[in-house]
Design a protein that fits this description.
The protein is mainly beta. The protein is built from one helix and eleven strands; from the N terminus they run βββββββββαββ. Strands 2, 4, 5, 6, 9, 10 and 11 form a seven-stranded mixed β-sheet that branches. A four-stranded antiparallel β-sheet has the order 1-3-8-7, with no helix packed on it. The radius of gyration is 14 Å and the shape is globular. About 35% of the residues are buried.
């Protein structure tokens, strides 16, 4: 059974850091584009970061550049999202998603939903940034 499980969320003070993990079972992440997405209350889900296969190119929206870093450990079948300098507007449920097709990176950058839907999704982990 294919499964993605996120962990590492929690309550953190403004300016703090968290590292989220996305562990896969039932398939190998080696050949999949992995994306991190988030959804804040009352807002649409948005892409946070993407990492491709092969050359492992990465993508960050301008608002995340310099604060967030995505990485993968294929031996552990896990992808990470290091988040630094967190602010209250980073509060959201964070999801990871995987897309094995060759167009996965394009799909992820495009938002991972609808026509560009990613194939596998986790249930998310909640990040709350508050003092």
């Amino acid at each position: 059974q294919v499964q993605l499980v996120e962990s590492g969320g929690g309550l953190v003070q403004p300016g703090g850091s968290l590292r989220l993990s996305c562990a896969a079972s039932g398939f190998s992440l080696d050949y999949s584009t992995i994306g991190w997405f988030r959804q804040a209350p009352g807002k649409e889900r948005e892409v946070v970061s993407c990492i491709g296969t092969g050359d492992e190119k990465t993508y960050y929206p301008n608002s995340k550049k310099g604060r967030f870093t995505i990485s993968r450990d294929n031996a552990k079948n896990t992808v990470y999202l290091q988040m630094n300098s967190l602010q209250p507007d980073d509060t959201a449920r964070y999801y990871c998603a995987a897309e094995p097709s060759p167009t996965g990176f394009t799909q992820c950058v495009a938002g991972g939903e609808g026509y560009y839907g990613m194939r596998y999704w986790g249930k998310g982990t909640l990040v709350t940034v508050s003092s």
